[in-house]
Write a structure and sequence with these properties.
heterodimer; A: 376 residues; alpha/beta; seven-stranded mixed beta sheet; five-stranded mixed beta sheet; 44% helix; B: 254 residues; 9 helices
């Protein structure tokens, strides 16, 4: 199939349609509004449902109702809007319904800004709303990958009856790249015999997240966590780039930040400093075993993020006992340049000499460096 | 000629599940449930109906009906119903909501669903108090009414006047069927059921959004006997919440 040049936001919308998701509810918010605008025109063409709700609160609950009725349904928003959706996401996870939520992340906290950021990592990967639950989180690093992962997201949501989040940033949403829409690869899915489609010829179906009996509520949470264990076994996605035993440093970065790290790695190669990149594509489940393996030959790791340091806590959790882990990043909508990443790696290589046995206090290092970068 | 014993004059509607409800003695939720169930039976739509449960006293309503049900987050039932009805217009969808759920936390959702003309039916049970949490002030709590969070009586200088939901929604330009009824005696209850049936009929005709506001009792949290509670509805609620049809598009009888 021929490639077409498309904006990330629009490509995600088209990918969803190609995956058979013909039901979309939305509320406008920068920097993802193009997705809504694209689908406002496109959904009527394919006989789908497009509805602009009165708030993200309402939209996420429309999603809940529609998913309960057994259809593929999705929404898109950005950080402050996603915060408003946390109520419904918690209920949806508890009631075990498949929905897809696209989060084109912008800087926070509060109203924050409208420029690209990765500061919703905690919210996306650690639950986000109340109660014991997780989303399956996919982080594309290009428009093509956003297309492929969006298609996959609907399959995964149906497979696990769990909300799936596509976590991009303003850069992924706004940039234009050539894409192709390959037919989605999907395994067999069980029938949605739990959906509220009218109790004709069967017993009534009930969709709820209320379990007043503590034993039943604990049992439901155990069912959810059993699914998350299955996700860890079967759904982990990651990329290793330029990884070798010659690496002085292993960068860990996802999404847009990973692309910038690749540019930095090329420059570092010219400077004869060998650096690898480990890119988680699933942020939950986090590629734990794979990162541990990738980290084995290297002296130290740096989590490079467009935040004040969030994924770094997962990197520390996974390899922090064996290797020094530090953080480098900018936030507020400022995207670290390849030059900044190069400078940070050079500083670490010059500082460290033989790698220390104990990890340094990463927060101090990170904070100091960020402050320095801001001055410069 | 068959004796009267051979003739069934009263039975449990098919749409109602054989379950004992958890409602307090004298509460009219049971009566209102029955009205809805009878209407689903009469219209023959039970097996293509999806109910949306609120958060409040009737949070467990899905146990009491034989039709499919989804349980919404507090106040969001109209958004749920929108989602269901938009993607499955062939289903009959209704929300069942109390006053805290519908006109406090869910005010935005109900106004916008009504204004979009969503083709579902809302049964709005107004008993002027939060029942499940133990009798707190609701937006519909009457002036000077004592509740656990207005222990000296609702001070309207401090909290505003009780919200008349039917009147408020009737002010929207979009066509809708909106009627307020009461359950404080048999005569009014029979009328209330007719309104419920009319609301579902409008949905089946794909006419408009439909809502029946049902004045209801809460003897437990009002601190009254069931009998005193029905009298209280008549003496205090109806004067402030007048009964009647507030809005209705031209009707085609189904």
């Amino acid at each position: 199939m021929a490639k077409t040049l498309m904006k990330g936001n629009e490509a995600i919308g088209e990918a969803a349609i190609r995956a058979g998701a013909l039901n979309y509810f939305c509320y406008p918010i920068t920097p993802q509004t193009e997705l809504a605008e694209y689908l406002a025109k496109r959904m009527p063409e394919v006989g789908g449902v497009f509805l602009q709700g009165e708030s993200e609160l309402a939209v996420s609950n429309m999603l809940f109702g529609a998913a309960g009725a057994g259809v593929r349904v999705f929404t898109s928003s950005s950080s402050p809007g996603i915060s408003l959706m946390q109520e419904a996401l918690s209920y949806i996870a508890g009631a075990q319904l498949p929905v897809v939520v696209v989060n084109i992340v912008r800087g926070g906290p509060g109203l924050g800004g409208i420029l690209p950021a990765q500061s919703d990592y905690f919210q996306a990967t650690k639950g986000g709303g109340h109660g014991d639950y997780r989303l399956l989180v996919l982080a594309p690093a290009s428009v093509q990958e956003a297309v492929d992962l969006t298609m996959k997201a609907f399959y995964l949501a149906d497979k696990y009856r769990n909300p799936v989040m596509i976590m991009g940033d303003g850069m992924i949403g706004q940039m234009m790249e050539p894409v192709e829409f390959n037919p989605p690869q999907e395994g067999d899915l069980p029938p949605k015999d739990w959906a509220t489609t009218g109790a004709k010829g069967r017993k009534r179906n009930q969709i709820h997240s209320l379990f007043l009996d503590p034993v039943a509520l604990e049992a439901n949470n155990r069912v959810l966590y059993a699914k998350y264990e299955e996700m860890k076994k079967h759904e982990v996605l990651f990329e290793r780039y330029n990884c070798s035993r010659h690496n002085k440093v292993l960068l860990v970065a996802y999404g847009t930040m990973a692309r910038i790290c690749k540019t930095a790695i090329a420059e570092l190669k010219r400077l004869k400093i060998s650096v690898g990149l480990f890119r988680p594509i699933t942020l939950f489940p986090f590629p734990e075993k794979e990162l541990r393996t990738a980290a084995e030959p290297v002296g130290r790791l740096v989590s490079v993020e467009m935040s004040m340091g969030q994924m770094v806590e997962d990197v520390e959790r996974v390899v922090g006992r064996e290797k020094p882990v530090s953080f480098f990043g900018r936030c507020g909508g400022i995207v670290p340049s390849p030059e900044e990443v190069v400078a940070e790696v050079k500083r670490l290589v010059a500082d460290s000499g033989p790698p220390a046995q104990k990890k340094p206090a990463r927060k101090k290092t990170g904070a100091k460096k960020t402050a320095k970068s801001r001055k410069g | 000629m068959a004796s009267t014993l051979d003739r069934t004059v009263f039975r449990k509607p098919e749409s109602l599940a054989p379950k004992i409800t958890h409602y307090c003695p004298g509460c009219t939720h049971g009566v209102i449930h029955r009205m809805v169930a009878e209407v689903l039976d009469e219209l023959g739509v039970m097996d293509r109906t999806v109910g949306v449960a609120p958060v409040g006293c009737s949070v467990l309503i899905y146990h009491y009906f034989e039709c499919d049900f989804q349980e919404a987050a507090h106040g969001r039932a109209p958004a749920f119903a929108t989602g269901i009805k938009r993607v499955r217009p062939d289903l009959v969808v209704f929300t069942y909501q109390g006053d805290g759920d519908l006109c406090s936390i869910g005010m935005s959702e109900i106004i916008h669903a009504a204004n979009r003309g969503e083709k579902f039916t809302t049964i709005f049970v107004n008993n002027a108090i939060y029942g499940m949490t133990g009798g707190q002030m609701a937006p519909t709590t009457l002036a000077n009414q004592v509740t656990s969070t207005s222990p000296f009586g609702r001070d309207t200088d401090h909290t505003g006047m009780p919200i008349r939901m039917s009147e408020l929604l009737s002010a929207l330009v979009t066509p809708a069927y909106i009627e307020r009824v009461s359950t404080h005696d048999a005569r009014h209850t029979i009328k209330a059921k007719k309104a419920v049936r009319r609301a579902f009929q409008h949905q089946l005709n794909n006419d408009c959004f439909s809502m029946v506001e049902v004045l209801s009792t809460c003897p437990t949290n009002w601190g009254l006997t069931p009998l005193e509670a029905t009298k209280w509805v008549e003496d205090n609620m109806i004067p402030y919440y007048p009964l009647g049809v507030f809005k209705e598009p031209p009707v085609e009888e189904g």
